[in-house]
Prior knowledge:
homodimer; eight-stranded parallel beta sheet; two-stranded antiparallel sheet; globular; disordered N terminus
Amino acid sequence: MNADAFKTYPDQVKIYELGARDGLQAEKKILTVEEKVSWINGLTSCGYQAIEVGSLVNTKLIPQMVDTDKVFLSIDRKPECQYFVLVGNKKYLHTALDIGVRNISLMGSASNLFSLENTHITLSESLTKIGEMLRVCKENNIYTRVYVSCCYDCPYQGAIDNKEVIDVIDRLMQLGCDELSLADTTGKATIIQVEHLLEASMKIVPLEKLAVHFHNTYSQAMVNTLVSLQMGVNKVDSSVGELGGCPYAKNPLVSPEHQGNLGTEALLFMLHGLNINTGVSSEKVREMKQYAFNALNRTN
Amino acid sequence: MNADAFKTYPDQVKIYELGARDGLQAEKKILTVEEKVSWINGLTSCGYQAIEVGSLVNTKLIPQMVDTDKVFLSIDRKPECQYFVLVGNKKYLHTALDIGVRNISLMGSASNLFSLENTHITLSESLTKIGEMLRVCKENNIYTRVYVSCCYDCPYQGAIDNKEVIDVIDRLMQLGCDELSLADTTGKATIIQVEHLLEASMKIVPLEKLAVHFHNTYSQAMVNTLVSLQMGVNKVDSSVGELGGCPYAKNPLVSPEHQGNLGTEALLFMLHGLNINTGVSSEKVREMKQYAFNALNRTN
Protein backbone atom coordinates (compact mmCIF):
# COMPACT_ATOMS: atom_id res chain seq x y z
CA MET A 1 0.00 0.00 0.00
CA ASN A 2 1.28 3.45 -0.84
CA ALA A 3 2.39 5.57 2.08
CA ASP A 4 0.03 8.38 1.13
CA ALA A 5 -2.92 6.07 0.62
CA PHE A 6 -5.22 7.89 2.99
CA LYS A 7 -5.90 11.30 1.56
CA THR A 8 -6.90 14.47 3.27
CA TYR A 9 -10.00 16.33 2.18
CA PRO A 10 -11.62 19.67 2.99
CA ASP A 11 -13.98 19.54 6.00
CA GLN A 12 -16.55 21.51 4.08
CA VAL A 13 -17.41 21.96 0.40
CA LYS A 14 -19.57 24.69 -1.08
CA ILE A 15 -21.66 23.41 -3.96
CA TYR A 16 -22.71 25.77 -6.74
CA GLU A 17 -25.99 24.44 -8.11
CA LEU A 18 -26.10 25.28 -11.81
CA GLY A 19 -29.13 23.27 -12.89
CA ALA A 20 -31.36 26.30 -13.39
CA ARG A 21 -28.84 28.02 -15.69
CA ASP A 22 -26.23 25.71 -17.22
CA GLY A 23 -28.73 22.86 -16.91
CA LEU A 24 -31.84 24.39 -18.43
CA GLN A 25 -30.03 26.18 -21.25
CA ALA A 26 -29.12 22.79 -22.72
CA GLU A 27 -32.74 21.55 -22.76
CA LYS A 28 -35.15 21.74 -25.67
CA LYS A 29 -38.21 22.39 -23.56
CA ILE A 30 -38.52 25.87 -22.08
CA LEU A 31 -39.91 25.94 -18.56
CA THR A 32 -42.45 28.56 -17.56
CA VAL A 33 -41.61 31.25 -15.00
CA GLU A 34 -43.81 29.40 -12.50
CA GLU A 35 -42.01 26.10 -13.06
CA LYS A 36 -38.60 27.72 -12.74
CA VAL A 37 -39.58 29.61 -9.60
CA SER A 38 -41.09 26.57 -7.97
CA TRP A 39 -38.00 24.51 -8.83
CA ILE A 40 -35.52 27.11 -7.60
CA ASN A 41 -37.47 27.51 -4.35
CA GLY A 42 -37.18 23.75 -4.01
CA LEU A 43 -33.44 23.99 -4.61
CA THR A 44 -33.18 26.63 -1.89
CA SER A 45 -34.89 24.24 0.51
CA CYS A 46 -32.16 21.67 -0.26
CA GLY A 47 -29.72 23.82 1.70
CA TYR A 48 -27.37 25.12 -0.99
CA GLN A 49 -25.15 28.11 -0.25
CA ALA A 50 -25.03 29.08 -3.94
CA ILE A 51 -27.57 28.70 -6.73
CA GLU A 52 -27.31 30.12 -10.23
CA VAL A 53 -30.88 31.00 -11.10
CA GLY A 54 -30.49 31.87 -14.77
CA SER A 55 -28.77 34.14 -17.22
CA LEU A 56 -29.46 37.50 -18.78
CA VAL A 57 -28.32 36.93 -22.33
CA ASN A 58 -29.56 37.13 -25.90
CA THR A 59 -32.66 34.95 -25.68
CA LYS A 60 -32.82 34.64 -29.45
CA LEU A 61 -29.72 32.48 -29.06
CA ILE A 62 -30.63 30.94 -25.72
CA PRO A 63 -34.44 31.01 -25.54
CA GLN A 64 -34.48 28.81 -22.43
CA MET A 65 -33.22 31.80 -20.44
CA VAL A 66 -36.21 33.99 -21.23
CA ASP A 67 -37.75 35.73 -18.18
CA THR A 68 -34.68 35.36 -15.95
CA ASP A 69 -35.50 38.81 -14.52
CA LYS A 70 -39.03 37.70 -13.59
CA VAL A 71 -37.67 34.46 -12.15
CA PHE A 72 -35.12 36.28 -10.03
CA LEU A 73 -37.73 38.69 -8.72
CA SER A 74 -40.21 35.91 -7.92
CA ILE A 75 -38.07 33.37 -6.07
CA ASP A 76 -37.83 33.26 -2.28
CA ARG A 77 -34.29 34.36 -1.50
CA LYS A 78 -32.73 33.21 1.74
CA PRO A 79 -29.89 35.31 3.19
CA GLU A 80 -27.66 32.24 3.70
CA CYS A 81 -27.64 31.49 -0.06
CA GLN A 82 -25.99 33.41 -2.90
CA TYR A 83 -28.28 33.67 -5.92
CA PHE A 84 -26.14 34.15 -9.02
CA VAL A 85 -27.27 35.47 -12.37
CA LEU A 86 -24.98 35.06 -15.39
CA VAL A 87 -24.89 38.20 -17.53
CA GLY A 88 -23.82 38.24 -21.16
CA ASN A 89 -22.71 41.86 -21.49
CA LYS A 90 -22.77 45.32 -19.92
CA LYS A 91 -26.38 46.01 -20.94
CA TYR A 92 -27.56 42.85 -19.20
CA LEU A 93 -25.35 43.64 -16.23
CA HIS A 94 -27.30 46.86 -15.75
CA THR A 95 -30.58 44.97 -16.00
CA ALA A 96 -29.27 42.65 -13.28
CA LEU A 97 -28.29 45.58 -11.08
CA ASP A 98 -31.67 47.22 -11.65
CA ILE A 99 -33.54 44.20 -10.36
CA GLY A 100 -31.29 43.82 -7.32
CA VAL A 101 -28.99 40.93 -8.25
CA ARG A 102 -26.08 40.88 -5.76
CA ASN A 103 -24.07 37.96 -7.22
CA ILE A 104 -23.02 38.09 -10.83
CA SER A 105 -21.42 35.42 -13.00
CA LEU A 106 -19.51 36.24 -16.17
CA MET A 107 -18.39 33.92 -18.93
CA GLY A 108 -14.71 33.98 -19.82
CA SER A 109 -12.61 31.59 -21.81
CA ALA A 110 -9.06 30.37 -22.07
CA SER A 111 -9.50 29.75 -25.80
CA ASN A 112 -9.34 32.48 -28.41
CA LEU A 113 -11.26 30.42 -30.98
CA PHE A 114 -14.00 29.61 -28.47
CA SER A 115 -14.32 33.31 -27.73
CA LEU A 116 -14.47 34.16 -31.44
CA GLU A 117 -17.00 31.42 -32.22
CA ASN A 118 -19.35 32.19 -29.35
CA THR A 119 -19.03 35.91 -28.77
CA HIS A 120 -17.42 37.08 -32.04
CA ILE A 121 -14.65 38.89 -30.20
CA THR A 122 -11.09 37.84 -29.47
CA LEU A 123 -10.03 36.50 -26.10
CA SER A 124 -8.20 39.74 -25.44
CA GLU A 125 -11.26 41.86 -26.28
CA SER A 126 -13.39 39.58 -24.13
CA LEU A 127 -11.07 40.12 -21.15
CA THR A 128 -11.33 43.88 -21.64
CA LYS A 129 -15.12 43.68 -21.58
CA ILE A 130 -15.05 41.41 -18.52
CA GLY A 131 -12.74 43.92 -16.85
CA GLU A 132 -15.23 46.73 -17.50
CA MET A 133 -18.06 44.69 -16.05
CA LEU A 134 -16.00 43.67 -13.01
CA ARG A 135 -15.32 47.36 -12.39
CA VAL A 136 -19.04 48.17 -12.49
CA CYS A 137 -19.69 45.26 -10.13
CA LYS A 138 -17.05 46.47 -7.71
CA GLU A 139 -18.53 49.97 -7.72
CA ASN A 140 -21.87 48.43 -6.85
CA ASN A 141 -20.46 46.09 -4.22
CA ILE A 142 -21.49 43.00 -6.21
CA TYR A 143 -19.87 39.60 -5.67
CA THR A 144 -18.42 38.28 -8.94
CA ARG A 145 -17.64 34.86 -10.30
CA VAL A 146 -16.00 34.27 -13.68
CA TYR A 147 -16.20 30.96 -15.55
CA VAL A 148 -13.01 30.21 -17.41
CA SER A 149 -14.27 27.90 -20.13
CA CYS A 150 -11.96 25.60 -22.13
CA CYS A 151 -9.33 25.34 -19.40
CA TYR A 152 -8.08 22.06 -20.83
CA ASP A 153 -9.49 21.63 -24.27
CA CYS A 154 -11.56 23.60 -26.76
CA PRO A 155 -14.06 22.22 -29.28
CA TYR A 156 -12.57 24.54 -31.93
CA GLN A 157 -8.95 24.91 -30.91
CA GLY A 158 -8.22 21.44 -29.47
CA ALA A 159 -5.84 21.11 -26.51
CA ILE A 160 -5.25 24.30 -24.53
CA ASP A 161 -1.83 24.97 -23.10
CA ASN A 162 -1.58 25.48 -19.34
CA LYS A 163 0.35 28.69 -19.88
CA GLU A 164 -2.51 30.28 -21.83
CA VAL A 165 -4.96 29.38 -19.06
CA ILE A 166 -2.71 30.72 -16.34
CA ASP A 167 -2.31 33.98 -18.27
CA VAL A 168 -6.10 34.37 -18.40
CA ILE A 169 -6.46 33.47 -14.71
CA ASP A 170 -3.74 35.94 -13.78
CA ARG A 171 -5.44 38.68 -15.78
CA LEU A 172 -8.84 37.97 -14.24
CA MET A 173 -7.39 38.12 -10.74
CA GLN A 174 -5.78 41.47 -11.57
CA LEU A 175 -9.13 42.65 -12.90
CA GLY A 176 -10.53 41.99 -9.45
CA CYS A 177 -12.96 39.10 -9.81
CA ASP A 178 -14.00 37.57 -6.50
CA GLU A 179 -13.80 33.97 -7.66
CA LEU A 180 -12.98 31.83 -10.65
CA SER A 181 -14.54 28.60 -11.82
CA LEU A 182 -12.13 26.57 -13.93
CA ALA A 183 -14.27 24.78 -16.49
CA ASP A 184 -13.61 21.64 -18.51
CA THR A 185 -15.95 22.55 -21.34
CA THR A 186 -15.44 19.47 -23.51
CA GLY A 187 -15.08 17.04 -20.61
CA LYS A 188 -11.71 15.87 -21.89
CA ALA A 189 -9.54 16.91 -18.93
CA THR A 190 -7.37 14.14 -17.55
CA ILE A 191 -6.48 13.80 -13.88
CA ILE A 192 -2.88 14.82 -14.59
CA GLN A 193 -4.02 17.93 -16.46
CA VAL A 194 -6.31 18.89 -13.59
CA GLU A 195 -3.52 18.40 -11.05
CA HIS A 196 -1.11 20.49 -13.09
CA LEU A 197 -3.55 23.33 -13.73
CA LEU A 198 -4.63 23.47 -10.10
CA GLU A 199 -1.03 23.39 -8.90
CA ALA A 200 -0.20 26.35 -11.16
CA SER A 201 -3.43 28.20 -10.32
CA MET A 202 -2.94 27.87 -6.58
CA LYS A 203 0.27 29.84 -6.91
CA ILE A 204 -1.65 32.91 -8.05
CA VAL A 205 -5.21 32.38 -6.77
CA PRO A 206 -6.11 32.04 -3.08
CA LEU A 207 -7.90 28.75 -2.41
CA GLU A 208 -11.13 30.49 -1.34
CA LYS A 209 -11.37 32.10 -4.80
CA LEU A 210 -11.03 28.86 -6.74
CA ALA A 211 -13.87 26.61 -7.92
CA VAL A 212 -13.89 23.66 -10.33
CA HIS A 213 -16.45 22.89 -13.01
CA PHE A 214 -16.36 19.53 -14.78
CA HIS A 215 -18.50 18.17 -17.57
CA ASN A 216 -19.17 14.46 -17.64
CA THR A 217 -18.87 13.98 -21.40
CA TYR A 218 -16.31 11.20 -20.99
CA SER A 219 -17.41 10.17 -17.48
CA GLN A 220 -14.40 11.91 -15.91
CA ALA A 221 -16.25 14.58 -13.89
CA MET A 222 -16.27 12.63 -10.64
CA VAL A 223 -12.60 11.61 -10.67
CA ASN A 224 -11.47 15.08 -11.69
CA THR A 225 -13.52 16.53 -8.86
CA LEU A 226 -12.04 14.00 -6.45
CA VAL A 227 -8.44 14.91 -7.28
CA SER A 228 -9.38 18.60 -6.98
CA LEU A 229 -10.67 17.92 -3.46
CA GLN A 230 -7.49 15.99 -2.67
CA MET A 231 -5.57 19.12 -3.65
CA GLY A 232 -7.66 21.21 -1.28
CA VAL A 233 -10.30 22.74 -3.56
CA ASN A 234 -13.54 23.26 -1.64
CA LYS A 235 -15.85 24.88 -4.21
CA VAL A 236 -17.49 22.65 -6.78
CA ASP A 237 -20.03 23.36 -9.52
CA SER A 238 -22.68 20.75 -10.21
CA SER A 239 -26.13 20.32 -11.64
CA VAL A 240 -29.11 18.34 -10.41
CA GLY A 241 -29.70 15.32 -12.66
CA GLU A 242 -26.49 16.05 -14.60
CA LEU A 243 -28.55 18.60 -16.54
CA GLY A 244 -26.50 20.75 -18.87
CA GLY A 245 -23.07 20.54 -20.33
CA CYS A 246 -21.85 22.87 -23.00
CA PRO A 247 -24.07 23.04 -26.12
CA TYR A 248 -21.15 24.55 -28.05
CA ALA A 249 -19.06 21.50 -27.25
CA LYS A 250 -21.20 19.55 -29.71
CA ASN A 251 -18.59 19.80 -32.40
CA PRO A 252 -17.40 17.26 -34.99
CA LEU A 253 -14.10 17.16 -33.08
CA VAL A 254 -15.90 15.89 -30.01
CA SER A 255 -17.79 12.64 -29.89
CA PRO A 256 -19.30 12.59 -26.43
CA GLU A 257 -20.39 9.47 -24.62
CA HIS A 258 -22.69 11.51 -22.45
CA GLN A 259 -23.71 15.13 -22.41
CA GLY A 260 -23.91 16.75 -19.03
CA ASN A 261 -22.53 18.43 -15.99
CA LEU A 262 -21.21 16.77 -12.91
CA GLY A 263 -24.40 15.52 -11.25
CA THR A 264 -25.21 16.94 -7.83
CA GLU A 265 -26.54 13.58 -6.60
CA ALA A 266 -23.30 11.76 -7.40
CA LEU A 267 -21.24 14.59 -5.94
CA LEU A 268 -23.24 14.56 -2.69
CA PHE A 269 -22.96 10.78 -2.39
CA MET A 270 -19.18 11.10 -2.66
CA LEU A 271 -18.82 14.13 -0.37
CA HIS A 272 -21.09 12.83 2.37
CA GLY A 273 -19.37 9.43 2.13
CA LEU A 274 -16.11 11.27 2.82
CA ASN A 275 -17.77 12.95 5.84
CA ILE A 276 -17.44 16.31 4.09
CA ASN A 277 -20.08 18.77 5.19
CA THR A 278 -22.13 20.45 2.42
CA GLY A 279 -25.31 21.55 4.18
CA VAL A 280 -27.23 20.07 1.24
CA SER A 281 -29.85 17.34 1.66
CA SER A 282 -29.34 14.43 -0.77
CA GLU A 283 -32.92 13.40 -0.34
CA LYS A 284 -34.33 16.81 -1.25
CA VAL A 285 -31.95 17.04 -4.21
CA ARG A 286 -33.34 13.76 -5.54
CA GLU A 287 -36.84 15.22 -5.24
CA MET A 288 -35.73 18.33 -7.13
CA LYS A 289 -34.20 16.16 -9.85
CA GLN A 290 -37.54 14.40 -10.20
CA TYR A 291 -39.34 17.74 -10.32
CA ALA A 292 -37.07 18.98 -13.11
CA PHE A 293 -37.22 15.73 -15.08
CA ASN A 294 -41.02 15.76 -14.90
CA ALA A 295 -41.19 19.40 -15.98
CA LEU A 296 -38.76 18.74 -18.83
CA ASN A 297 -40.48 15.48 -19.85
CA ARG A 298 -37.18 13.69 -19.36
CA THR A 299 -36.86 10.11 -18.23
CA ASN A 300 -34.10 8.79 -16.01
CA MET B 1 -2.15 22.54 -1.60
CA ASN B 2 -1.81 19.30 0.34
CA ALA B 3 1.66 17.85 0.59
CA ASP B 4 0.54 14.53 -0.86
CA ALA B 5 -1.36 16.13 -3.71
CA PHE B 6 0.43 14.23 -6.43
CA LYS B 7 -0.47 10.62 -6.09
CA THR B 8 1.39 7.54 -7.21
CA TYR B 9 -0.30 5.02 -9.44
CA PRO B 10 0.53 1.57 -10.79
CA ASP B 11 2.50 1.62 -14.07
CA GLN B 12 0.24 -1.01 -15.49
CA VAL B 13 -3.35 -2.09 -14.92
CA LYS B 14 -4.92 -5.35 -16.02
CA ILE B 15 -8.52 -4.89 -17.10
CA TYR B 16 -10.98 -7.75 -16.76
CA GLU B 17 -13.58 -7.25 -19.49
CA LEU B 18 -16.87 -8.59 -18.15
CA GLY B 19 -19.25 -7.34 -20.84
CA ALA B 20 -19.88 -10.78 -22.32
CA ARG B 21 -20.86 -12.28 -18.95
CA ASP B 22 -21.84 -9.73 -16.29
CA GLY B 23 -22.91 -7.40 -19.09
CA LEU B 24 -25.07 -9.68 -21.24
CA GLN B 25 -26.74 -11.44 -18.30
CA ALA B 26 -28.44 -8.16 -17.39
CA GLU B 27 -29.90 -7.65 -20.89
CA LYS B 28 -33.35 -8.69 -22.05
CA LYS B 29 -32.28 -9.62 -25.56
CA ILE B 30 -30.35 -12.87 -25.90
CA LEU B 31 -27.54 -12.73 -28.43
CA THR B 32 -26.95 -15.64 -30.79
CA VAL B 33 -23.81 -17.75 -30.57
CA GLU B 34 -22.57 -16.05 -33.75
CA GLU B 35 -23.12 -12.57 -32.32
CA LYS B 36 -21.40 -13.46 -29.06
CA VAL B 37 -18.45 -15.08 -30.85
CA SER B 38 -18.02 -12.18 -33.22
CA TRP B 39 -18.18 -9.70 -30.33
CA ILE B 40 -15.74 -11.60 -28.12
CA ASN B 41 -13.31 -11.93 -31.04
CA GLY B 42 -13.60 -8.17 -31.40
CA LEU B 43 -12.88 -7.77 -27.68
CA THR B 44 -9.79 -9.94 -28.07
CA SER B 45 -8.58 -7.62 -30.82
CA CYS B 46 -8.87 -4.70 -28.35
CA GLY B 47 -5.84 -6.08 -26.52
CA TYR B 48 -7.32 -7.25 -23.22
CA GLN B 49 -5.35 -9.63 -21.03
CA ALA B 50 -8.53 -11.04 -19.47
CA ILE B 51 -12.02 -11.52 -20.88
CA GLU B 52 -14.90 -13.31 -19.20
CA VAL B 53 -16.71 -14.97 -22.07
CA GLY B 54 -19.82 -16.21 -20.28
CA SER B 55 -21.09 -18.42 -17.53
CA LEU B 56 -22.12 -22.03 -17.19
CA VAL B 57 -25.13 -21.72 -14.92
CA ASN B 58 -28.80 -22.63 -14.77
CA THR B 59 -30.02 -21.07 -18.00
CA LYS B 60 -33.62 -21.32 -16.85
CA LEU B 61 -32.67 -18.57 -14.41
CA ILE B 62 -30.16 -16.78 -16.64
CA PRO B 63 -31.22 -17.55 -20.23
CA GLN B 64 -28.78 -15.01 -21.65
CA MET B 65 -25.95 -17.40 -20.82
CA VAL B 66 -27.25 -20.22 -23.00
CA ASP B 67 -24.62 -21.80 -25.27
CA THR B 68 -21.62 -20.56 -23.29
CA ASP B 69 -19.91 -23.89 -24.09
CA LYS B 70 -20.41 -23.34 -27.84
CA VAL B 71 -19.26 -19.75 -27.53
CA PHE B 72 -16.10 -20.75 -25.67
CA LEU B 73 -15.30 -23.43 -28.25
CA SER B 74 -15.90 -21.09 -31.20
CA ILE B 75 -13.99 -17.97 -30.22
CA ASP B 76 -10.43 -17.32 -31.35
CA ARG B 77 -8.34 -17.63 -28.21
CA LYS B 78 -5.04 -15.78 -28.07
CA PRO B 79 -2.38 -17.09 -25.70
CA GLU B 80 -1.76 -13.63 -24.21
CA CYS B 81 -5.35 -13.38 -22.96
CA GLN B 82 -7.07 -15.30 -20.17
CA TYR B 83 -10.58 -16.40 -21.17
CA PHE B 84 -12.63 -16.84 -18.02
CA VAL B 85 -15.85 -18.79 -17.69
CA LEU B 86 -17.96 -18.36 -14.56
CA VAL B 87 -19.32 -21.68 -13.29
CA GLY B 88 -22.32 -22.01 -10.99
CA ASN B 89 -21.56 -25.36 -9.38
CA LYS B 90 -19.47 -28.53 -9.54
CA LYS B 91 -21.47 -30.02 -12.42
CA TYR B 92 -20.86 -26.93 -14.55
CA LEU B 93 -17.23 -26.90 -13.48
CA HIS B 94 -16.81 -30.33 -15.02
CA THR B 95 -18.50 -29.14 -18.21
CA ALA B 96 -15.98 -26.29 -18.28
CA LEU B 97 -13.06 -28.66 -17.77
CA ASP B 98 -14.40 -30.98 -20.46
CA ILE B 99 -14.40 -28.21 -23.07
CA GLY B 100 -10.92 -27.02 -22.12
CA VAL B 101 -11.56 -23.90 -20.05
CA ARG B 102 -8.33 -22.96 -18.23
CA ASN B 103 -9.56 -19.92 -16.24
CA ILE B 104 -12.53 -20.33 -13.95
CA SER B 105 -14.52 -17.72 -12.06
CA LEU B 106 -16.66 -18.57 -9.06
CA MET B 107 -19.30 -16.46 -7.34
CA GLY B 108 -18.90 -15.95 -3.62
CA SER B 109 -20.49 -13.49 -1.28
CA ALA B 110 -19.80 -11.65 1.93
CA SER B 111 -23.52 -11.65 2.77
CA ASN B 112 -25.36 -14.59 4.20
CA LEU B 113 -28.76 -13.31 3.06
CA PHE B 114 -27.48 -12.70 -0.48
CA SER B 115 -26.20 -16.26 -0.54
CA LEU B 116 -29.52 -17.60 0.75
CA GLU B 117 -31.60 -15.51 -1.67
CA ASN B 118 -29.58 -16.32 -4.77
CA THR B 119 -28.24 -19.81 -4.18
CA HIS B 120 -30.50 -21.08 -1.38
CA ILE B 121 -27.55 -22.07 0.76
CA THR B 122 -25.89 -20.28 3.67
CA LEU B 123 -22.69 -18.33 3.27
CA SER B 124 -20.85 -21.06 5.16
CA GLU B 125 -22.24 -23.82 2.90
CA SER B 126 -21.38 -21.71 -0.12
CA LEU B 127 -17.75 -21.38 1.03
CA THR B 128 -17.59 -25.17 1.47
CA LYS B 129 -18.82 -25.66 -2.10
CA ILE B 130 -16.39 -23.06 -3.41
CA GLY B 131 -13.61 -24.87 -1.53
CA GLU B 132 -14.50 -28.15 -3.25
CA MET B 133 -14.48 -26.48 -6.66
CA LEU B 134 -11.18 -24.72 -5.96
CA ARG B 135 -9.68 -28.11 -5.07
CA VAL B 136 -10.85 -29.61 -8.37
CA CYS B 137 -9.43 -26.59 -10.20
CA LYS B 138 -6.08 -26.95 -8.45
CA GLU B 139 -5.92 -30.64 -9.36
CA ASN B 140 -6.52 -29.67 -12.96
CA ASN B 141 -4.07 -26.76 -12.92
CA ILE B 142 -6.83 -24.23 -13.55
CA TYR B 143 -6.44 -20.53 -12.71
CA THR B 144 -9.23 -19.40 -10.36
CA ARG B 145 -10.88 -16.10 -9.59
CA VAL B 146 -13.59 -15.65 -6.96
CA TYR B 147 -16.00 -12.73 -6.92
CA VAL B 148 -16.82 -11.63 -3.40
CA SER B 149 -20.18 -9.99 -3.90
CA CYS B 150 -21.71 -7.57 -1.37
CA CYS B 151 -18.37 -6.46 0.06
CA TYR B 152 -19.89 -3.23 1.29
CA ASP B 153 -23.62 -3.53 1.16
CA CYS B 154 -26.24 -6.18 0.38
CA PRO B 155 -29.65 -5.62 -1.22
CA TYR B 156 -31.18 -7.94 1.41
CA GLN B 157 -28.98 -7.49 4.46
CA GLY B 158 -28.04 -3.79 4.16
CA ALA B 159 -24.60 -2.61 5.26
CA ILE B 160 -21.97 -5.34 5.53
CA ASP B 161 -19.38 -5.17 8.28
CA ASN B 162 -15.74 -5.13 7.23
CA LYS B 163 -14.97 -7.97 9.62
CA GLU B 164 -17.43 -10.29 7.88
CA VAL B 165 -15.84 -9.52 4.51
CA ILE B 166 -12.33 -10.04 5.82
CA ASP B 167 -13.36 -13.40 7.29
CA VAL B 168 -14.66 -14.50 3.88
CA ILE B 169 -11.54 -13.21 2.12
CA ASP B 170 -9.31 -14.98 4.63
CA ARG B 171 -11.20 -18.24 4.15
CA LEU B 172 -11.03 -17.98 0.34
CA MET B 173 -7.29 -17.40 0.46
CA GLN B 174 -6.90 -20.46 2.67
CA LEU B 175 -9.01 -22.43 0.23
CA GLY B 176 -6.40 -21.59 -2.40
CA CYS B 177 -8.09 -19.27 -4.89
CA ASP B 178 -5.66 -17.54 -7.24
CA GLU B 179 -7.34 -14.16 -7.11
CA LEU B 180 -10.25 -12.32 -5.57
CA SER B 181 -12.45 -9.64 -7.02
CA LEU B 182 -14.00 -7.47 -4.31
CA ALA B 183 -17.42 -6.46 -5.62
CA ASP B 184 -19.65 -3.55 -4.70
CA THR B 185 -22.87 -5.24 -5.73
CA THR B 186 -25.29 -2.44 -4.90
CA GLY B 187 -22.95 0.38 -5.91
CA LYS B 188 -23.23 1.98 -2.48
CA ALA B 189 -19.58 1.78 -1.41
CA THR B 190 -18.11 5.06 -0.26
CA ILE B 191 -14.49 6.04 -0.78
CA ILE B 192 -13.75 5.62 2.93
CA GLN B 193 -15.28 2.14 2.95
CA VAL B 194 -13.20 1.16 -0.06
CA GLU B 195 -10.02 2.49 1.55
CA HIS B 196 -10.72 0.64 4.78
CA LEU B 197 -11.59 -2.67 3.13
CA LEU B 198 -8.55 -2.52 0.85
CA GLU B 199 -6.28 -1.63 3.75
CA ALA B 200 -7.53 -4.64 5.70
CA SER B 201 -7.48 -6.94 2.65
CA MET B 202 -3.92 -6.03 1.75
CA LYS B 203 -2.78 -7.40 5.10
CA ILE B 204 -3.89 -10.89 4.12
CA VAL B 205 -3.99 -10.87 0.30
CA PRO B 206 -0.95 -10.22 -1.88
CA LEU B 207 -1.53 -7.29 -4.22
CA GLU B 208 -1.28 -9.45 -7.34
CA LYS B 209 -4.25 -11.53 -6.14
CA LEU B 210 -6.54 -8.55 -5.56
CA ALA B 211 -9.00 -7.05 -8.06
CA VAL B 212 -11.78 -4.50 -7.61
CA HIS B 213 -15.26 -4.58 -9.11
CA PHE B 214 -17.49 -1.52 -8.85
CA HIS B 215 -21.05 -0.98 -10.01
CA ASN B 216 -22.03 2.50 -11.12
CA THR B 217 -25.51 2.53 -9.54
CA TYR B 218 -24.79 5.77 -7.67
CA SER B 219 -22.10 7.04 -10.08
CA GLN B 220 -19.33 6.11 -7.64
CA ALA B 221 -17.57 3.43 -9.73
CA MET B 222 -14.93 5.76 -11.15
CA VAL B 223 -13.94 7.43 -7.88
CA ASN B 224 -13.87 4.13 -6.02
CA THR B 225 -11.65 2.71 -8.74
CA LEU B 226 -9.41 5.77 -8.56
CA VAL B 227 -8.81 5.45 -4.80
CA SER B 228 -8.15 1.73 -5.30
CA LEU B 229 -5.45 2.61 -7.84
CA GLN B 230 -4.04 5.19 -5.43
CA MET B 231 -3.72 2.38 -2.89
CA GLY B 232 -1.82 0.26 -5.39
CA VAL B 233 -4.52 -2.03 -6.81
CA ASN B 234 -3.72 -2.90 -10.43
CA LYS B 235 -6.54 -5.26 -11.44
CA VAL B 236 -9.87 -3.71 -12.34
CA ASP B 237 -13.12 -5.25 -13.61
CA SER B 238 -15.12 -3.31 -16.17
CA SER B 239 -17.67 -3.73 -18.91
CA VAL B 240 -17.89 -2.20 -22.37
CA GLY B 241 -20.72 0.34 -22.49
CA GLU B 242 -21.33 -0.05 -18.74
CA LEU B 243 -23.32 -3.17 -19.62
CA GLY B 244 -24.40 -5.17 -16.61
CA GLY B 245 -24.64 -4.52 -12.95
CA CYS B 246 -26.27 -6.92 -10.56
CA PRO B 247 -29.82 -7.90 -11.50
CA TYR B 248 -30.37 -9.09 -7.92
CA ALA B 249 -29.54 -5.62 -6.67
CA LYS B 250 -32.89 -4.48 -8.02
CA ASN B 251 -34.46 -4.58 -4.62
CA PRO B 252 -36.92 -2.24 -2.93
CA LEU B 253 -34.10 -1.23 -0.58
CA VAL B 254 -32.09 0.02 -3.53
CA SER B 255 -33.23 2.84 -5.75
CA PRO B 256 -30.55 3.06 -8.39
CA GLU B 257 -29.81 6.16 -10.41
CA HIS B 258 -28.18 4.03 -13.06
CA GLN B 259 -27.81 0.35 -13.53
CA GLY B 260 -24.44 -0.82 -14.70
CA ASN B 261 -20.85 -1.78 -14.26
CA LEU B 262 -17.89 0.49 -14.36
CA GLY B 263 -17.65 1.31 -18.08
CA THR B 264 -14.48 0.23 -19.86
CA GLU B 265 -14.41 3.41 -21.98
CA ALA B 266 -14.43 5.70 -18.93
CA LEU B 267 -11.85 3.52 -17.18
CA LEU B 268 -9.53 3.61 -20.19
CA PHE B 269 -9.87 7.38 -20.52
CA MET B 270 -8.79 7.75 -16.90
CA LEU B 271 -5.99 5.16 -16.97
CA HIS B 272 -4.46 6.35 -20.22
CA GLY B 273 -4.75 9.95 -19.00
CA LEU B 274 -2.69 8.86 -15.99
CA ASN B 275 -0.14 7.30 -18.38
CA ILE B 276 -1.02 3.88 -17.01
CA ASN B 277 -0.41 1.12 -19.52
CA THR B 278 -3.33 -1.25 -20.21
CA GLY B 279 -2.54 -2.71 -23.63
CA VAL B 280 -6.17 -2.02 -24.56
CA SER B 281 -7.16 0.20 -27.50
CA SER B 282 -9.78 2.81 -26.53
CA GLU B 283 -10.76 3.19 -30.15
CA LYS B 284 -11.43 -0.51 -30.66
CA VAL B 285 -13.33 -0.67 -27.38
CA ARG B 286 -15.64 2.08 -28.64
CA GLU B 287 -16.25 0.03 -31.78
CA MET B 288 -17.05 -3.02 -29.67
CA LYS B 289 -19.45 -0.97 -27.58
CA GLN B 290 -21.22 0.05 -30.76
CA TYR B 291 -21.30 -3.56 -31.94
CA ALA B 292 -22.89 -4.70 -28.67
CA PHE B 293 -25.38 -1.84 -28.55
CA ASN B 294 -26.44 -2.57 -32.13
CA ALA B 295 -26.82 -6.27 -31.41
CA LEU B 296 -28.79 -5.55 -28.23
CA ASN B 297 -30.91 -2.83 -29.90
CA ARG B 298 -29.71 -0.40 -27.27
CA THR B 299 -29.22 3.29 -27.83
CA ASN B 300 -26.50 5.39 -26.26
